[in-house]
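Protocol step 4 of 6: structure prediction from sequence.
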Amino acid sequence: MTTFEEKQPAVSVEKLKWMYEMMAKSRYFEDQMVEVYTEGKAPVFNIGAGPVPGEMHLSTGQEPAAVGICVHLTKDDTVTAPHRPHHHAIAKGVDLKKMTAEMFGKETGLGKGKGGHMHLFDPAVKFSCGGIVAAGIPHAVGAAMAAKMQGKDWVAVAFIGEGAANAGAFHESLNLAAVWNLPLILVIEDNSYGISVAKKAATAVETNDLRAAAYGIAGAHVKGNDPIAMYKVSEEAVARARNGQGPTIIEIETYRFLGHFQGDPELYRDKAEVPGLREQDPILKLRNSLVEAKGATEKELQKIEKRVKQEVDEAYQFARDSNYPAPEAALDDVFSS
């Protein structure tokens, strides 16, 4: 019988289990958020009501993009994320209780409840979320420059959606990263839609990794929302960055199972496509592969899933039990005297 190691010689079973755990954690976290976010917002949808106010952008289906590269990173490496950041944050090791509390607007949150889900920031693991389209790329360039100036082998990874590849910050940042030969990796998550605009209606090139040639840097394309393929491409990109060989653009074909935001009527989308995408669920596919190729037993994976659920449930309870910031503390840590 063919062993799992023989099928996937480039990826250790332990790393595959880690990727499965992080994807399962992200999925369960967001499945719970779907329920929590709707509390208090009916019968008329009110974005400001309920325990989690504001817009909510979920990454269900896009988990391989985050785990496939974050498995190669350390706490000293920087990650910046866009407004759909939870799978990135979880894969980078952001404190889940503090992250959840931040989304609830509580004082125990990463930003003491002042940033919300689109402005998550955890310096302990060098993670930040800019919230605005393409805003995280210049920050990642700055982190990459700092690493090079200090003689460190740290890398900086900026995640963006495919729509952000048409923003000025994308081109300006990549030009400088290439000129300065910085350890930057730009991961483009192509989920087919920039808000409600189809990629083919807004982007002239078929895949954005082709743009790497314009800057004289490496580019790679990952098909099929495959975490193992993402792992292999990212391994090479991270090695190049650490060895002083400059930036890389990686674009991964991924799938957004949900709308652009919670409450999105998705009038631009043929909803008949979603069941087909769910049949190709990357988490289920990786789970089945681990079991079928004897990389993990059913009992081992159930243990992982139980651990994930407990951690996520505890994070939500922590957020619910935490206090809101006092009104008089609204400007604390915002301005210095």
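Step 5 (inspection) to follow. Strands lie at 78-81, 121-122, 127-129, 156-161, 184-190, 193-194, 197-198, 218-222, 248-253.
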